[in-house]
Amino acid sequence: MTDRPIALDERRGMAAQKATRLRRRRAAVKAQHAGLVARQHDLEAHLFAAEAATWPEAAGKARYLLETFAATLSCDDPRLQAMVAAVLSDFTRLSEQARPDA
Length: 102
Fold this sequence. Notes:
By secondary structure, this protein is mostly helical. It is about 75% helix and about 0% strand. It has four helices and no strands.
């Protein structure tokens, strides 16, 4: 008997090794996705927990919603993409103008 662990992956055929690698990668992607979803829910809970106190804060919330909306849609329509980009640009420009130090 030996204290060295046996690498079972090396004893499998190529097809079994490939299937094992794919299963492990799929499991890792699922875990990362679950973590991302949890962090996104935490962000949304924090972001929308209270009313916006200023227009720039409201624009930030609207920006988040628009970006999320644009990312979840199959936004193949260039007209929609241009409209979302224009609104986000307006939010940025107007938020910068609303800052007292600008």
